[in-house]
Amino acid sequence: MNYLVLAALEIGLLGLLSGVAGTLIVLRRRSFFAVALSHATFPGGVLFAIAGWNLLLGQALFALLLVALMTVLSRVPGQGRQVASGVVLSFGFALGTLLSSLNPGLGVPVEALLVGSPLSVTTSDVAATAAVLIAATIAMLLWGRRILFHTFDAVGFRAAGFRAWPVELVVTGVVAAAVVVAMPAVGAILGVAILIGPAAAARLVAPRLSWVPPIAAVLGVGSGFVGLWVSRQFGVAAGGAIGCTVTAVFLLAFLASSLAATARRARNFATVEAASEEEGAIA
């Protein structure tokens, strides 16, 4: 299959995945967790590159290890999830840098692990992303209501007799899987850009919560394709072009949201002024 077709398929699937995993990350405020996970799985890719094994498998196994480590650290008294994520991010990235420096003849360029290469994705990468998208969609169909309940009313969720750990397990699994499959295309540094950016933009412009996932998916696919086109047209790095496009989409959404809020305030003020004038005329 043509490398451009594979790149377009991969970016399109990741854009759709933003509507599922990205929405979870944004609504549950797991952005730093996702960033930490994407950076910390860097050594898994380096280790498997040294051994000549599948990089995606190495990153997935290291993601499982680091999620377990973050869970343990977050339970230490006086610490929390953010502290644990920061520790794991620093450790993983430092270990990956150390391993890559000890193996200068690494078969895979370190830059490819850090910023990805959409034009170098394989059929197995696309298949893995498609499998994660299907699994994440099924998980949301089965657990979506409970996840929303727990997200916005954790106390009421527990009072209703539900346990929090299955929800946490599903959310963590979906986020971790999405981050891992995004890395071949956009790397450890830009890996979460195409997941979080469209969902964050959708959260700003969506008229109601139920609209966030579809809007995020559309923005994710659209910004990914635009970034890929810019890369092809001007000969720039595809991962960087996609990351910048996603950022531009978020800034436009922020601007549109701010202008809409200003317009609403102006209309409300005009309504209040008109009501006051009518009351004055009656008096």
Automatic annotation (TrEMBL):
Q: State where the protein is found.
A: Cell membrane; Membrane
Gene3D superfamilies of this UniProt entry? ABC transporter involved in vitamin B12 uptake, BtuC
Name the domain of life: Bacteria
Alphabetized, the UniProt keywords read: Membrane, Transmembrane, Transmembrane helix, Transport
Q: Which Pfam families match?
A: ABC-3
Q: What is its main location?
A: membrane
Q: How does it sit in the membrane?
A: Multi-pass membrane protein
Provide a GO CC annotation, any one.
Answer: ATP-binding cassette (ABC) transporter complex
GO biological process: any one? transmembrane transport
Give yes or no: UniProt keyword Nucleotide-binding: no
Residues passing through the membrane, by range: 6-27, 32-50, 56-74, 86-106, 126-143, 164-182, 188-206, 211-230, 236-261
Is Membrane among the key words of this record?
Answer: yes
Q: Which family does it belong to?
A: Belongs to the ABC-3 integral membrane protein family.
Please identify the protein, giving its name as recorded.
Metal ABC transporter permease
- What species is given as this protein's source? Leucobacter chromiisoli
Q: What is the lineage of its organism?
A: Bacteria, Bacillati, Actinomycetota, Actinomycetes, Micrococcales
